[in-house]
Write a structure and sequence with these properties.
Layout (H helix, E strand, L loop, with lengths): L2 H14 L5 H7 L1 H16 L5 H14 L3 E7 L2 H6 L1 H12 L4 E3 L9 E7 L3 H15 L7 H7 L4 E6 L5 H11 L3 E3 L10 E6 L3 H17 L8 E3 L1 H6 L2 E2 L1 H6 L3 H7 L9 H8 L5 E2 L3 H8 L3 E7 H4 L3 H9 L3 E5 L9 E6 L3 E4 L6 E7 L5 E4 L4 E2 L5 H33 L10
Parallel strand pairs: 9-13
Antiparallel strand pairs: 1-3, 1-8, 2-3, 4-6, 4-7, 5-6, 10-14, 11-12, 12-15, 13-14, 15-16
Helix pairs in contact: 3-4
C-alpha cells in the first residue's frame, strides 16, 4: 500500500468507525482535507502538480490531523516577481516554529499566497501576520505606524464596500482632510476594502459614506453598511474555506477539473456527499457545551414558519454545510435570511411544533442575506439579532394572550354575586 493510500485510508476508517462525528468534521477540517486532496490528485494526473507536492500535503495532513486554517497572505507585485516574498515568509514561519503548508497558487492574479496554518500555531502566526501586514501597507496619506504615532494610537479600522473604487475614495478622503492609511486587502473579490482612520476623523468618514451610499442607491446598487472592525476581525478576513480556494482557481485549473464533474462518484466524492451536515439533536453533548459558553446566545427557530419553503429553503438546498432560516418579522422585499454553520444548530424533539435552537456569538456580526441572496448588515452583533427574535416572540405571545384576557374579562361580568348571609 502506498503512503497516499495509507493516509486516505486512515481518514476513511476514522469516518467509518464514527470517530469523526459531523460536528467534529466541521471543526477538524476533514471535509476540507478531502476536497483539497481530491484536487491535488486530479492535478497530479493531469501533470499540473508534481508528486512531491502531493506527498508534502500528505505529511502535513498526518502531522496536523486535518486541524488547520487556510489563510490568504497578500503581497505587492514587485515582491512576487522577484520570488523573494514567499521565501522570506517561509523563513520567518520556520524561525517561529509555526507548522504550515503552502498551497499551490491556483490564481496568481489575486496577488495572494494561500497557506495552511496548523490551528494550534494560530496565536504565533497572528503575531507574525500583524507585523507582515504593516510592512505591506501601501497607498493612503501615511503609513499605519505614522498614523498611530500621530494620533497616540487613537485610530480605528473601517471596512468600506468599495472594492475597485480605491482611487476615488482616497481622493475624497484627502480633500476632506482625513488622516488615513489603506490596509492590505486580505480577501480580494469580496467587495470590501479596509482603512485605518484617525478617530478624530471618523465623523467625517461616516458622513461621507452616507452621501456615497445615497449615490450608489440612486444608481440602482444595494451597498452594504460601513463596518467597524477590530484588528482580529480584520485579520480574520484572510480566512479562506476549501471551497473558496478551489473556486478561485484560474481558468487553466478549472478546465482540468471540468472533465471529472458529472462522472460517477468515487469514494472521496461519496464521503464528501455524506458530510453534508444536518442539525444535531439537542440531547447531543455539544448542545450543553454551547449552552455553557457565555460568548454565545440562543435563538429559538420555528421550523414551519422560518425554514420550510421560501428563500431559506432554496438556499439550504444549494448549501449542505450551513443552516438557513428567515428572521422573524421580515417578509417580501424586506426579508432577511440568517446563515449559520450547521454544527451550531440543534433540533428540539418531543414538542408539538418542530423547532431548532441555534447559537450565535454575542459580539460578532451575524451573516445575513436579503431576499436576492446578497449579503447585508442589519445587525451589528449576535445580541442585536437576539433582540429581533425576542421582540417578535413577545409580540406574538401578547397577540395570542389577548383573546384569553378578553374571555376572562367577560367571564368575570357574568359571575353571580354571592347570596347575602342570613343572620338569626
Amino acid at each position: 500500500m502506498s503512503e497516499t493510500e495509507q493516509t486516505m485510508n486512515e481518514i476513511f476508517m476514522n469516518i467509518q468507525r464514527g470517530q469523526y462525528s459531523l460536528n467534529m468534521m466541521a471543526r477538524s477540517g476533514v471535509s476540507s482535507v478531502l476536497q483539497i486532496y481530491q484536487l491535488f490528485c486530479r492535478l497530479h494526473r493531469e501533470h499540473l502538480l508534481s508528486g512531491g507536492e502531493v506527498k508534502k500535503f500528505e505529511r502535513f495532513m498526518k502531522a496536523t490531523g486535518g486541524n488547520y486554517d487556510i489563510l490568504r497572505i497578500p503581497y505587492r507585485t514587485p515582491d512576487r516577481e522577484s520570488g523573494s516574498i514567499l521565501s522570506a515568509i517561509k523563513k520567518e514561519l520556520d524561525n517561529l516554529g509555526i507548522r504550515y503548508h503552502v498551497l499551490p497558487d491556483l490564481n496568481p492574479g489575486d496577488q495572494a499566497i494561500q497557506i495552511c496554518i496548523y490551528s494550534k500555531d494560530r496565536q504565533k502566526f497572528q503575531a507574525f501576520f500583524t507585523s507582515y501586514l504593516d510592512q505591506q501597507l501601501s497607498g493612503g496619506s501615511m503609513q499605519s505606524e505614522d498614523l498611530l504615532s500621530l494620533t497616540d494610537k487613537r485610530a480605528s479600522i473601517l471596512s468600506i464596500p468599495g472594492e475597485g473604487q480605491e482611487e476615488k475614495i482616497q481622493k475624497d478622503f484627502q480633500s476632506l482632510g482625513v488622516n488615513f492609511a489603506k490596509l492590505p486587502d486580505l480577501h480580494v473579490g469580496d467587495g470590501q476594502i479596509q482603512y485605518l482612520v484617525a478617530d478624530a476623523d471618523l465623523p467625517k468618514v461616516r458622513h461621507w459614506y452616507s452621501l456615497y451610499r445615497e449615490d450608489l442607491l440612486r444608481a440602482g446598487e444595494r451597498p452594504e453598511d460601513l463596518r467597524d472592525l477590530t484588528i482580529s476581525q480584520y485579520q480574520d478576513t484572510a480566512k479562506c474555506s476549501a471551497e473558496e480556494y478551489l473556486q478561485a482557481g484560474a481558468e487553466e485549473y478549472q478546465k482540468t477539473v471540468a472533465p471529472y464533474e458529472g462522472k460517477e462518484k468515487g469514494e472521496t466524492e461519496q464521503i464528501l456527499e455524506n458530510l453534508k451536515q444536518k442539525p444535531l439533536d439537542a440531547e447531543n453533548p455539544e448542545y450543553a457545551r454551547y449552552l455553557a459558553d457565555p460568548n454565545y446566545t440562543r435563538l429559538s427557530i420555528d421550523a414551519e414558519t422560518l425554514t420550510d419553503g421560501g428563500n431559506a429553503a432554496q438556499m439550504q438546498k444549494m448549501d449542505g454545510t450551513h443552516f438557513y432560516c428567515r428572521i422573524p418579522g421580515t417578509y417580501g422585499i424586506t426579508e432577511e435570511i440568517l446563515r449559520l454553520p450547521a454544527h451550531q444548530v440543534f433540533t428540539v424533539q418531543g414538542e408539538e411544533r418542530p423547532r431548532y435552537i441555534a447559537f450565535v456569538k454575542k459580539q460578532e456580526k451575524p451573516e445575513i442575506y436579503n431576499e436576492a441572496g446578497q449579503p447585508i448588515s442589519p445587525y451589528e452583533t449576535g445580541e442585536d439579532l437576539y433582540q429581533q427574535f425576542d421582540r417578535v416572540r413577545q409580540k406574538f405571545e401578547k397577540r395570542n394572550m389577548q383573546p384569553i384576557k378578553e374571555a376572562v374579562k367577560q367571564a368575570v361580568k357574568v359571575v353571580p354575586k354571592a347570596p347575602p348571609v342570613l343572620t338569626k
